Amino acid sequence: MAYYGISSNLVLYLTGKLHQGTVKSANNVTNWVGTIWMTPILGAYVADAHLGRYWTFVIASLIYISGMSLLTLSVSLPGLKPPTCHQANIDDCKEASTLQLAVFFGALYTLAIGTGGTKPNISTIGADQFDEFHPKEKAYKLSFFNWWMFSIFFGTLFANTVLVYIQDNVGWTLGYGLPTAGLVISVLIFLAGTPFYRHKVPAGSPFTRMAMVIIAAIRKWNVSLPNDPKELYELDLEEYATKGKFRIDSTPTLRFLNKAAVKTGSIDPWMLCSVTQVEETKQMLRMIPILIATFVPSTMIAQINTLFVKQGTTLDRHIGSFKIPPASLAGFVTISMLVCVVLYDRFFVPIMQKWTKNPRGITLLQRMGIGLVFHIIIMVIASITERHRLSVAREHGLVENGGQLPLTIFILLPQFVLMGTADAFLEVAKLEFFYDQSPESMKSLGTSYSTTSLGIGNFLSSFLLSTVSHITRKHGHQGWILNNLSKSHLDYYYAFFAILNFLNFIFFLVVIKFYVYKAEVSDSMHVLIEELKLMRLKTSNREESRE
Question: pTM score, two decimals?
């Protein structure tokens, strides 16, 4: 709720209170949101390598709260914001001072550092509470990420409706103060449950272990691989069992990395790595092409709180005497997502289970693929809707003055609703996929892949917006994206996005053709236990025969 309570309406605060233009405000939003979703890489590293998930989350929560508190002060104190301006052209308004911008953006980016430690770890802590080797708990875990996203988006719905309304109609102080108080309460509730959690100790830096494998393989590039994978270096079964870790057998994919486990006489960890360490590295590298395929749809998500909201400001927002805040339309993304997640989990999965015999109904990559198709449809609809909005502006002579159009804001509803449907498929599957396919010792890093996708998507959105705006204004042309949206050509911009999504979907289909799912951990552990029993039996038999 805290994050979405800020991001949903941030573009309007930047334009209305800090007097920034369309491109600059949209880019400031996407750059900040991009940072929000990129910092979890750092949080995942700290959790997996040093502090563990629990303490990383607790410390990051304190930083998060301090950022929220400072942000609330920056929108409350008169000296920390420029004077109110009622000019139609924001270029005529007084700009915010360096100090005012420093405090406001300093608070935003302090908050971003805090979320870096909370986002990759809180969902992972939740998933860690399920025992992979207990049939009932394992079955519950299959639905965990569906319901996790359900709870997240329930808070988002409150932010997109109640908080946005308060910010627009009551004041920004209360609008930011409420999510700050909510964040404090939620952290206290989390701390109250501490004695009941299953805590997992940090397993060392995942980046260091991966680097060891890559460097060892490069240093032994001219060494031949043995025909029998069992000749590769591997730790004893007992060592894995005593540490509660999982052994992974060698696989034929990315065979070059297997050279890191070839025995050459050296025991230097930068020259010799175990098969399990090699396979962990492979698992993380195999997911990178899938990660790249999620960048473009993440760029589409960035439009919800930027250009989609700016479109809403040009339309008739009245229902009787009630005036709808433009950012509240994002609530329909949430409602759509909540409904679709419930329908998916309760109806779609049981039906598909009968056909596919897959416990999830369909594979995670198939679910992501359906979400990608929705993104193509969304941008086609957004382009058509924007073309209609521009035609109404021309018919009523409202192009030059950028006045409000006699057109209901609900014409934007289809693109918001379908975005929620796409999230129910793509975003939930993406989070579960990167968690599920990560090695046990790198779960936080795997979860951060999902947030990294959103971060890069937002930075990509900033890059595309600036680039397209610059290119289309060359040679005396008017440009596609202006402060006056009625003189802009967002319909062309959205059509460009539709084409980009189609090309990305083709790339995704090529990538998944070569992807191999990792083996079930519980199955691997079952094999490990059986092998240990067999080894102990053989040892005891030898001892008995000697006697």
Answer: 0.77
